[in-house]
Design a protein that fits this description.
single chain; six-stranded antiparallel barrel
Length: 412
Amino acid sequence: MLILSGFSIHCGKSEPEHSHAGGDTHSHDNEEGKEQPTAGENQRQHLHVEPGIIKQWGIKYTSPEPRDYVEKIVLTGVVKENKTSTFIINALVCGIVTGIKKDIGDTVKKGDILCMLNSSQLLELKTKYIKAFQEYRLTKENYRRTEKLFKIKAIEKKELISRESAYKTAMADYFSHEAELGTLGFDKQRLQQIKEAVQQDEAEKIRAFLSTYYSIRSPAPGKVMMRDLSLGQRVENNTTIFEISDTRKLWVILDAMEKDLRYIEKKKQATIVSDVYPGENFPGKVLTLMEKIDPELRTVKVRVEVENRGGLLKPGMYVRGKLEKKIKKKYLAVPASALVKVSGVDGVFVIEEGEFAFKPVQVIETDSAGFAFLKGVQPEDMVVTEGAFYLKAEYEIQSGSADSHAGHGHEH
């Protein structure tokens, strides 16, 4: 036995290792031609620590407990704009660009002016609207008058029908022009004001309404993702000039292999990570699992809606998506603080006959609750969960010392 500074380390027989997951005992046959047990498999170095030092190091221990194991998959993908909050803005009238108020990357609110046009086509639409409104008023009055005359048999029925037809045609024309201006952003209140001005013959208000200048406004809050126009440029009807998208929630399109489909469910939580932002997790939710499998890549597209915290994620950015699935089978687990690595080997310290021994393990996974799922430990093991770092340091020191003195045949 080697004794150093109140610690001691010696070799003793270790029990055969068992795999918790499979429940099988791993053994080696001694028959000729079969693998023989190594010294490391039959001998385990034990570390003796005085009670006072155990208390000083705050060493605590517990038995492994069976816990639900959650399998995880990681899928690669690309950030995309959220199509449910993305607006393509077209020029609904032709005109000359006289002002540009917003550029790519600018944040906009609903109703903010994006650009200004000088449009003779708009002037024509406004003029037609006023004429249609006047025609509607006139034919309506004529029809009402004709109804009264018909009741007293002052006119024939065919005259009544003619006036009624003219009135309803004018009404349809008037409503059509009003709807057309509505699509250009003229709300009911503004149109009501101009109708009142026409009825009251308010020339200044009518002149102001008949301006050729037109403001194109943002239909929703978001950011300007695209702008395709310049000052002085003539834009035609249905020319795409802006794209506005609310980037607070984005889409991530992930590629899942066929074998991964069992992990993916609609509304399931997902975590998006990017190498650009180490340590940052972006919470997401599975929206859609596409129905078709790519015949060449054998992958399925998975659409995830992600919270773009701080606006860090950008459309086109490569990311990874992490999804979890609880497996019914339980595995033995200990707090992750119990894990140490000795000479590159993962393991834990267990108590054997009142002393500490390093026990190699296979780490299956570490979950978000801070538990490590292991193969290589048994339910009856007493595993050190706090203070394992001190044991590791002393164990490595004494193991090295023991090895260096092994050939001298004497003890200190």
